[in-house]
């Protein structure tokens, strides 16, 4: 269901500290948990998912097993009902694998994928901060989209090789204890005014009680002249939604009606940017304020397609992949 969109100016802007830069000057680093925001298996569609093990230690350990070997579990989450489908692969030192989601999980049409490191001897989830990856989504039919996007990368907190499932619940907690905390708010640096052949889709993932909880997301939408407007949207589990279906605030016609900057335009389009923040997530028996939301923006602006992950702001520790309880811990 969609909630009433407020076309008035937002009373106040969200505030918070930016996420700390990585040790490599802001360049994403390898981790133990990768979350790929989308896969598409519809007619003519496919997503290629790559995972690479950057550990190059060929020292023999048990039998023929080398010290730099790790198992990785691919978990496909169906966007409609959040039900998962799993496959495990073994990556030797410096090994890489690219799989077709269409062939790997032919029974699900769309959703998201997460991949985490496991011990090749015990099968337990482990700290293995050597995983990197990328995905390429190819959509056939009239959309004809074709773009690469990196996954969200979360480092495990414990010592390398140690078990990460500290509470033995079978889930991957983004709580700063098992894996790094998730961003609190997301910042999308650009959107193009919708209409006149421009079409953008926002992918939304709820990681707070995602298997049973519906999430409400708050939006602060800025035009090119610092004016800010607010909207809300609700979804369950995972959704890929057109910006104009979230709110008419994203439309070219609306942006032209605001006090926009006449000198700031490109290719005849109006542009803006937006923040999004989880407001509340609720099940039939429980609710949780400020849920963890991940997103991706895919744009088609007439001169090519592209996908982008947002920037982060603040941290949030109540995310996980993936709980199916109607109660949030």
Write structural notes for this entry.
There is one protein chain. This protein is mostly beta strands and 329 residues long. It has 2 domains: 33-174, Sandwich (Hypothetical Protein Tm1070, Chain: A); 182-321. Helix content is 4%, strand content 43%. The chain has 3 helices and 21 strands. The chain has helices at 101-104, 243-246, 252-257; strands at 33-40, 46-53, 70-78, 84-91, 96-100, 110-118, 131-138, 146-149, 152-154, 172-174, 182-192, 199-206, 214-222, 228-236, 238-242, 271-282, 287-289, 293-300, 305-308, 311-316, 319-321. Strands 11, 13, 14, 16, 17 and 20 form a 6-stranded antiparallel sheet that branches. Strands 4-3-6-1-9 form a 5-stranded antiparallel sheet. Strands 5-2-7-8 form a 4-stranded antiparallel sheet. Strand 16 (271-282) and strand 17 form a beta hairpin. Mean pLDDT is 89; it is low at 1-21.
Q: Could you give the topology of this structure?
A:
Layout: E1 33-40, E2 46-53, E3 70-78, E4 84-91, E5 96-100, H1 101-104, E6 110-118, E7 131-138, E8 146-149, E9 152-154, E10 172-174, E11 182-192, E12 199-206, E13 214-222, E14 228-236, E15 238-242, H2 243-246, H3 252-257, E16 271-282, E17 287-289, E18 293-300, E19 305-308, E20 311-316, E21 319-321
Antiparallel strand pairs: 1-6, 1-9, 2-5, 2-7, 3-4, 3-6, 7-8, 10-21, 11-16, 11-20, 12-15, 12-18, 13-14, 13-16, 16-17, 18-19
């Amino acid at each position: 269901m969609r909630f009433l969109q407020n076309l008035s100016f937002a009373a106040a802007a969200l505030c918070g500290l930016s996420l700390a830069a990585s040790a490599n000057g802001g360049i994403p680093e390898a981790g133990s948990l990768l979350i790929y925001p989308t896969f598409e298996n519809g007619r003519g569609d496919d997503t290629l998912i790559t995972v690479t093990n950057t550990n190059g230690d060929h020292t023999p350990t048990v039998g023929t097993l080398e010290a730099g070997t790790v198992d990785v579990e691919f978990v496909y989450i169906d966007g409609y009902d959040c039900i998962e489908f799993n496959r495990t692969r073994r990556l030797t030192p410096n090994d890489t694998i690219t799989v077709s989601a269409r062939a790997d999980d032919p029974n699900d049409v769309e959703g998201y994928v997460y991949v985490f490191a496991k011990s090749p001897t015990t099968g337990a989830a482990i700290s293995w901060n050597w995983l990197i990856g990328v995905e390429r989504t190819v959509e056939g039919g009239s959309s004809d989209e074709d773009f690469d996007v990196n996954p969200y990368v979360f480092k495990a907190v414990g010592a390398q090789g140690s078990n990460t499932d500290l509470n033995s619940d079978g889930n991957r907690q983004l709580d700063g204890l098992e894996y790094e905390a998730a961003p609190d708010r997301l910042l999308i640096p650009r959107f193009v005014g919708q209409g006149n052949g421009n079409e953008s889709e926002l992918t939304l993932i709820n990681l707070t009680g995602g298997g049973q909880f519906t999430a409400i997301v708050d939006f602060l939408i800025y035009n090119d002249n610092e004016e800010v407007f607010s909207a809300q949207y609700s979804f369950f589990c995972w959704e890929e939604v057109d910006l104009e279906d979230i709110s008419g605030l994203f439309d070219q016609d609306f942006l032209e009606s605001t006090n926009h900057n006449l000198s700031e335009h490109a290719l005849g389009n109006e542009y803006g940017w937006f923040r999004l923040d989880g407001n509340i997530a609720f099940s039939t028996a429980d609710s949780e304020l400020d849920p963890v939301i991940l997103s991706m923006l895919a744009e088609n602006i007439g001169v090519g397609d592209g996908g982008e992950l947002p920037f982060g702001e603040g941290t949030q520790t109540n995310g996980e992949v993936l709980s199916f309880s109607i109660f949030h811990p």
